[in-house]
Amino acid sequence: EVQQLNRQLEEKNGEIQQMINQPPYEKEREILRLQKSLAEREKAQATSEVLCRSLTDETHQLQRKLASTAEMCQHLAKCLEEKQKREKRNSDDQMPTERSNQLLDDETSLQALIVKLQDENRMLKQKVAHV
């Protein structure tokens, strides 16, 4: 093991000697290459940070929108329940067919709105999960 490490040390020393013995322009070229590589890595890292920040912002925005949509769904469901209770109480005043047609129309439109909001909610959850 010691011999192997000594050989590796000798190889590294040889590489260092080669670098030292290189003409100045070779050294400068190597320095320029390394600087260019460093600049490219820094640029890539900056780009990654910007993308990460952007995704984080989008995630927060989608989460807020999802919470808002869920709140709206709950509110609409509550409104639907209240409206159904009110209409049930008022059913004595209206004729049965008139009342059922109105209830059916109102319920259908509210149900359609709830389904639409649930779809939007599901889509936002998928987006948040993807992000």
Automatic annotation (TrEMBL):
Residues 93-103 have a biased composition (Polar residues). GO terms for biological process: cellular response to lipopolysaccharide; positive regulation of canonical NF-kappaB signal transduction; regulation of transcription by RNA polymerase II; toll-like receptor 2 signaling pathway; toll-like receptor 3 signaling pathway. Residues 1-24, 81-105 are annotated as: Disordered. GO terms for cellular component: cytoplasm. Keywords: Coiled coil. Residues 81-92 have a biased composition (Basic and acidic residues). The keyword Coiled coil applies. PANTHER family: TNFAIP3-INTERACTING PROTEIN 2, TNFAIP3-INTERACTING PROTEIN COILED COIL FAMILY MEMBER. This is TNIP2 protein. The lineage of its organism: Eukaryota, Metazoa, Chordata, Craniata, Vertebrata. The gene is Tnip2.
